[in-house]
Amino acid sequence: MDRNLQQTSAGALYPPLDPFDRQRVDVGDGHNLYVEQCGNPGGLPVAVLHGGPGGGCSPMMRRFFDPDIWRVILFDQRGCGRSRPHASIRDNTTWHLVRDIERLRGHLGIDRWAVFGGSWGATLALIYAITHPDRAAHLFLRGVFLMEERELDWFYGGGVGAFWPEAWARFAGMIPEAEHGDLIAAYNRRLFDTPAQEQVRFARAWAAWENALASVAAQGRSGEPGGEYARAFARLENHYFTHRGFLDHDGWIRANLDRIADVPGDIVQGRYDMICPPVSAQLLAEGWSAATLQIAPFAGHALSEPGIAEELVAATDRIAAARSGELRF
Q1: Which of the residues are catalytic?
Q2: pLDDT tens digits for 171-223?
Q3: What is the rounded distance in angstroms from the CA atom of residue 131 to the CA atom of residue 142?
Q4: Which domains are present in the chain?
Q5: pTM of the full structure
């Protein structure tokens, strides 16, 4: 099944792939989503959930699946990428996104599908599966983020800043010291209550902080993210984190793992993930007996990290082989 694999800087991926279908889907509330399908139109269906919130999908995300076997569905979540309106937080919550995933499944005529996601995409995949366990056939998760207070404290409260003080100084230094007790709230005021030009300036700082720590190779450095991308990414991510993922209580995902006790999953985690440390992946695996956890020993957070891509492709290939040629769940 690996006859088409290519060795790239991102690991063993399938070759670049063009969609066989692109469409826009009206999901209500004034939101219109960009949706694409790749691979085998009659293949095993898998929904790919991007990170952020607000990151948008990319061509690389198509390449973790054997295109002869998988029907790969990607879409840009509300407010980001090619979906419209851009950078909008109106009617944009976790529960709207869960509803959108279900609407797309029905719209595409799919009964059950696998779900693939990393970082926020892993969070959303877990919440979707907990809400609709009968529709989730398998979960492929990377860089686990459980939307818990301790994780936000680590990344926005100075925990990881102790390892990358120069990058932290750039991020926190945008805000007066008197507001450093809650940088999420401080950035929220500047991302939503200032003129557009100021929003972009703070959005770039917010996005650059995360980008600087996504890869081991980045070593705390980040290029300047584009203004429009950064504005959507920062506004949406901050909006979701301000509202703690719109979950009823801290630890909601782990409290509801019994709902997916019969849903199998593969978890791939970088040992040196500075954005989503491995403790969350370990806690998830301990509470979800149907999942297996693989640690990539020299990898950080990004999808392209050494070992991450290889483990994810191996997982999707293994599930495809287990179907014994029957391309449905």
Answers
A1: 119, 273, 301
A2: 999 999 999 999 999 999 999 999 999 999 999 999 999 999 999 988 888 77
A3: 20
A4: 6-147+248-322 (3.40.50.1820), 150-245 (no CATH)
A5: 0.96
